[in-house]
Amino acid sequence: MKKFLTASIAAMLIQNVNAIVDGILMGRFLGTEAFSAVNLCLPVVGLLTTIAMLFYTGANVLASVALGAREEKRANSIYTVSMTSVGILSVVVTVTAILGVNLVTAVICREEALREYTRDYLLVYFAGTAVIMLVSALLGFGNVGGKPKLVTRASLTNVVTNIVCDVLYVKILGMGIKGAALATITGAFLSAIIVIADWKIKGSPFKFCKVGSETGSILKEIVHYGVSVTSQTFAIVIYSYVCAILAQIFCGVYGAFVGSLLAQATSLGQGVSGGMGKAFNAIGGMLKGQKDDAGVLMLYKKGMKVAVLVAVGFVAVFMILARPYAMLMGAENEELLNYSVKSLRMALPFIIPVSFVWIIPNIYALGGQLSILPIISISQPVLTGLGLIACGSLIGNDYMWLGYPISAVLIFLLVVFLSERTRKKSNENLGFISLLPVPDNKPNVYDISVPCDKDGLVDTLRELNTFFEGQDIDKKLGMRVRLCIEEMMSNIIEFAGRKKNQFLDLKVVVDEKEISAIVKDDGKQFDPITAEKKGNGLKILNGLCPDLDYKYSYGQNMLFMNWVK
């Protein structure tokens, strides 16, 4: 789980580093006005992404849960409806955006000096909107399908291509800011080829299928989840727009430049949050489908720890390197440099509390806590806008930037208040802030992570004997279940090629009608059902368990065993 969590975060960081490198090149090649113009376009770019996310982010959660529950037909149906919807939508959005480019430019850009740059960039970007939307959807399903490493490779291809094409189109061919937008589209196109080629050669985790009369109900479900999850992304879009406009109103061209610097730095924090969100959608959804509340809670704790630590690190680095960072983005005169350093250091601490808030919608969507998401989403642009206006009006224009950390703390406190109110009203035992179900010690469930060695095996078998003694099951059936688990665990310990001090997971559930067991490990991929060479242990396993199913996903071997009582 850890390496796939890392891969998901890495993929999003790569994409956001791409934006920073893009900004550096624009600042160096075309000057600070072009750099500012590109960043003024970010709310529009974010809005287009949000529109596509409406039809694939909710689908990612639903497909992941379906895969965890081993409902492959439903997962493929969700994939088919989602990708078809994104395809149709992308064409409509592309045409509409191109026709409305002048209106969009007037809305987002108040400074006359930046207007031509802004329009030229948007016009080319809009022409490639369909490609970018479809690529985003493909990468989302790549994560859900257990291939975050593929997504990382595709994202890296996107970055490298974008940088090379920036130099080629802007510097060598002299295409100006239009070349920057074309480079972005070229990078997205090649990353799509990487994903499609991999799925063609190695097999796709999803397949298009005939959905029929269920299309409407599946689309409704996708949009229902999508609205809740993408409300956060839409809030960030509005938030970016509000911040960009207020920066221009209070501080003019200098404000637009500092706002652009802040947006680029913030994008790294959003990269970690976005990676965590994708991991929750994919891995968390699978665990939810397997009814593994303990696994979901563990994923949340690890993810939040990583997100906060990385956010603190980012803030520290940018605070220390504020001056060279501004110079790197094209600032040359001393007045602009001093203004940029002072303003960045006032604003940057806001990344720490909001890095937590940005992840929360994915967690609440996974846990089914959809009702409070709109309030959290709306609060971000509203409270931030009020904070910037208050600081700019009461303290002075140049101190408007203090509104960022002040409003971020208020937003975080609002999340705590809303989550606590929801938790107290619930009949379930929900976790603090996360609102995820806290696993109870149910008498009919044996759930444990075991050291992957012989001592761990011995201890587990002894505990299993005790567990079965307390269950209403036939003694001979209990012996068969125990023996199958013993053979599978022995096989993992001896042949999985695992490092020392690693664990495997075992969960046994005794219901009224059946006994089910799941054994998971992250050793070498091995299917004990279809393996050509089976030792005596695997022959015993296949002979004593009438219902076996194997899957390999997120770097884990998963064996599902079921017995009728």
Q: Which shape, going by the Cα principal axes? A: elongated
- Radius of gyration (Å): 26 Å
Q: How do the helices and strands follow one another from N- to C-terminus? A: HHHHHHHHHHHHHHHHEHHEEHEE
The total of helices stands at 19
Structural class: alpha+beta
| Nearest-integer average pLDDT | 85
- The largest sheet has its strands arranged as 1-2-3-5-4
Unreliable segments (pLDDT under 50, ≥5 consecutive)?
none
What is the makeup of the main sheet? Answer: 5 strands, antiparallel
For the structure shown, list the relevant keywords.
565 residues; alpha+beta; Heat Shock Protein 90; five-stranded antiparallel beta sheet; 19 helices; 5 strands; elongated
Descriptive report:
The protein is an alpha+beta fold and 565 residues long. The chain folds into two domains: 2-425, no CATH class; 445-564, Heat Shock Protein 90. It is 73% helix and 7% strand. It has 19 helices and five strands. It has helices spanning 2-30, 32-40, 42-68, 72-99, 101-108, 112-127, 129-144, 148-172, 177-202, 215-289, 293-320, 322-328, 334-347, 351-366, 373-394, 403-425, 454-469, 475-495, 536-544; strands at 445-451, 503-510, 514-521, 547-553, 556-564. The protein has a five-stranded antiparallel beta sheet with strand order 1-2-3-5-4, with helices on one face. The mean pLDDT is 85.
Quickly describe the structure.
The chain has 19 helices and five strands. It is α+β, with helices and mostly antiparallel strands and 565 residues long.
